[in-house]
Backbone:
């Protein structure tokens, strides 16, 4: 039987100063974006989604993009005030905003903190001048370091740095140098993930020269060891946190995704996932992608919905849950999918016999080997 899970909110700000050649997110460059109109449409969009709340409070909010820090602090404050007027905030709610390290946006950090944002995710990607240029980034390493310092001065105790590895012509030493510089800045969370070439990007049309597989493997293994030696615990495929006052500084918003929790999605191209126990179904939905169309639409026409079928649900659940290094309690499968755990018994037994899942019937968790070959593990749960 479906149990109503925790609820988060994702807010998409679709504009950027410049579109990066590797980016396949819904982002658009436009100098004269309609900030005030977009804020009003976001709140109208949320108003339309209120039946999905079902009496719950918000555990977390995440401003993603695009580049949310392109908005003024006043706009972010207006959005958060409008959300809180419509949905109750949980005590200690986590509110994250993605930010560019450029000086113009870093100067807004005090205003973002005053608006209620309490976690900042800074898109550094690399500290190397050559690699930043190859990635089309508009900041430099010194600006990145200064942005972290300004975030701390603005009162942000929880700061994430996004870093990529496997960059064009990157060596192991260069990848480790990026990690060391990030850790030296004293942040509590790192998102460290490999550059992948996605369709509909400049890099897909004009592929750069990437490190060979052996170098990618060496970067991965050396980086994991370095992070561990500096107190950063890998709690998800590409997420690393250290403890502050005995509390691991994980991203609670993302953990809700990975535990197959619910999230509202508002903004151009935003995605949501909602559990409807009374109707015994789970729906995914997405909002219209193009900002101009989003602003012109009546809110009742913003979303496309898909009901997840019984065939889809095991893969959808495991695709998220097994990304967590400690997995999830086995009981969560039935609560979050509405299906009996027996639905996946045969697949789990095979994977346990192969040494890819832990032989612990109370948890769904990959072994060390299974975590290394996670794509192979997940393939076993794909619908026929």
Residues:
């Amino acid at each position: 039987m479906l149990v109503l899970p925790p609820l988060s909110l994702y807010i998409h700000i679709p504009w950027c100063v410049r579109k990066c050649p590797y980016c396949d997110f819904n982002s658009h460059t436009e100098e004269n974006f309609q900030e005030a109109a977009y804020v009003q449409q976001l709140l109208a969009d949320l108003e339309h989604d209120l039946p999905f709340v079902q009496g719950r409070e918000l555990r977390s909010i995440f401003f993603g993009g695009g580049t949310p820090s392109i908005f003024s602090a006043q706009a972010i404050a207006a959005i958060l005030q409008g959300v809180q007027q419509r949905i109750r905030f949980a005590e200690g709610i986590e509110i994250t905003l993605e930010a560019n390290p450029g000086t113009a946006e870093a100067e807004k950090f005090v205003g973002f903190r005053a608006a209620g944002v309490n976690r900042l995710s800074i898109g550094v990607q690399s500290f190397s001048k050559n690699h930043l240029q190859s990635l089309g980034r508009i900041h430099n390493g010194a600006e990145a370091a200064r942005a972290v310092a300004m975030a701390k001065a603005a009162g942000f105790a929880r700061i994430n740095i996004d870093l990529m590895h496997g960059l064009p012509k990157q060596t192991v030493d260069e990848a480790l140098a990026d990690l060391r510089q990030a850790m030296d800045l004293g942040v509590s969370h790192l998102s460290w993930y490999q550059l992948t070439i996605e369709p509909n990007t400049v890099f897909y049309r004009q592929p750069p020269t990437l490190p060979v597989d052996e170098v990618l493997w060496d970067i991965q293994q050396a980086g994991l060891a370095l992070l561990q030696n500096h107190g950063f615990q890998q709690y998800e495929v590409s997420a690393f946190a250290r403890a502050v006052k005995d509390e691991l500084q994980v991203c609670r918003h993302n953990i809700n995704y990975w535990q197959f929790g619910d999230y509202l999605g508002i903004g151009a191209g935003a995605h949501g996932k909602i559990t409807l126990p009374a109707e015994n179904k789970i729906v995914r939905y997405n909002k219209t992608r193009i900002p101009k169309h989003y602003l012109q639409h009546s809110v009742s026409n913003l979303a496309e919905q898909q009901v997840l079928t019984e065939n889809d649900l095991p893969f959808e659940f495991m695709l998220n849950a097994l990304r967590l290094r400690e997995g999830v309690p086995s009981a969560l499968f039935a609560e979050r999918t509405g299906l009996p755990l027996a639905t996946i018994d045969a697949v789990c037994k095979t994977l346990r016999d192969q040494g890819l899942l832990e032989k612990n019937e109370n948890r769904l968790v990959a072994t060390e080997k299974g975590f290394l070959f996670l794509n192979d593990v997940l393939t076993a749960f794909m619908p026929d």
Q: What stands out?
A: Residues 21 and 203 are 6 Å apart (CA to CA). The chain has a mean pLDDT of 91. The radius of gyration is 21 Å.
